[in-house]
Specification:
Blueprint lengths: L3 E4 L16 H17 L4 E3 L10 H11 L2 E3 L1 E3 L9 H6 L5 H14 L10 E6 L13 H17 L3 E5 L5 H10 L7 E4 L7 H8 L4 E4 L10 H13 L6 E3 L4 E4 L21 H12 L4 H17 L2
Parallel strand pairs: 1-10, 2-3, 4-5, 5-6, 6-7, 7-8, 8-9
Length: 310
């Protein structure tokens, strides 16, 4: 529900000290092999929420899908302000607002992305870590504009929205923005909530009707997997399995430098890959008493209901 084939951070081409050009064929082969390995675990659909301003490449996705036999679903949308592109931020100061960005999203949904013929399956938006004058992370005016654009496009098209929450920004405030624009909270996944092991935080989101994405398994330098597992197992135990989706937020390939940790910390991302869930985590959930019905719910039924708005 939240994995990436390819990421290209804005400005990657400027890293001429290490960048010798993107080896597309090698990257494509790696991603096809990864998708085929996932198919061996029974996975038929791979959702890639890469926004358009950090390297979304729908031709690459389409070719990886065709060669692997995996259904790949791409997104429309923009990323958080601190790491997203500057294009719409610049035009925001020139008078462009949420309605104009919503028109871009809606056109991609109805007509396809550029001349590719590929239509996105959902809308991505995000908030980040930029701080206000009081020194606290907040939703910036640019991010609010993008949230409202996503909400308006979702309302106009009936498409679901995946919202990536980063750090301590108020998720409930973000949900208020969506619902104020008329979006049904059942069409919203709040991603990266699994970075917290606070069950009160998770239930406060789900009690508003939204789904939570426990979707960064394998990123142990952010939060150890044992705490991520404890969170999912605990939420299942108190009746919330029907509002959880599972994933890793893994990245197959980067343009430019890949994610690198010092040698003594490499073990903290050793399992940051999309088969980790099937090979290592589901067995531990079963050992802890999570039923097959609840596992299927998180992997299959919840994504289907989210797409359908049920």
């Amino acid at each position: 529900m939240h994995e990436h084939l390819l990421i290209a951070w804005s400005g990657w081409e400027a890293d001429t000290a290490v960048v010798k050009g993107f080896k597309r064929d090698e990257a494509l082969k790696f991603c096809v092999d990864r998708l085929q390995e996932l198919k061996g675990h029974g996975v038929n659909t791979f959702m890639d929420p890469c926004p358009s301003d950090i390297g979304r490449d729908v031709d690459f996705m389409a070719e990886a899908s065709a060669k692997s036999g995996m259904r790949v679903i791409c997104a429309t949308g923009l990323y958080k302000e601190d790491l997203g592109g500057a294009y719409f931020k610049f035009y925001m100061h020139m008078g462009t607002g949420a309605s104009e960005i919503a028109d871009v999203y809606t056109k991609e949904i109805t007509d396809g992305i550029g001349d590719t013929g590929v239509k996105p399956g959902f809308i991505k938006c995000a908030t980040g870590v930029l701080k206000n004058e009081a020194g606290r992370p907040h939703i910036t005016p640019y991010e609010e504009m993008c949230l409202r654009a996503a909400a308006r496009a979702a309302k106009a098209t009936g498409y679901p929205s995946q919202h990536t929450r980063m750090r301590r920004c108020s998720v409930l405030e973000q949900l208020v923005i969506f619902t104020s624009e008329g979006v049904d909270s059942r069409r919203v996944i709040v991603g990266h909530t699994g970075d917290s092991a606070n069950l009160a935080y998770h239930t406060s989101i789900m009690d508003k009707g939204a789904y939570v994405g426990c979707d960064r398994f394998g990123l142990e330098f952010v939060l150890p997997d044992k705490l991520r597992l404890a969170t999912v197992i605990g939420l299942c135990g108190i009746g919330y399995a029907n509002q959880i989706v599972l994933s890793h937020d893994s990245v197959g390939c980067f343009k430019g430098r890949s994610l690198a940790l010092p040698p003594e910390q490499q073990h903290l991302i050793a399992n940051w890959q999309p088969n980790h869930l099937f090979k290592n985590l589901l067995p531990k959930m079963r050992e802890a008493g999570v039923s097959e019905d609840k596992i299927r719910m998180m992997l299959v039924d919840n994504p289907r209901r989210w797409f359908a708005g049920e």
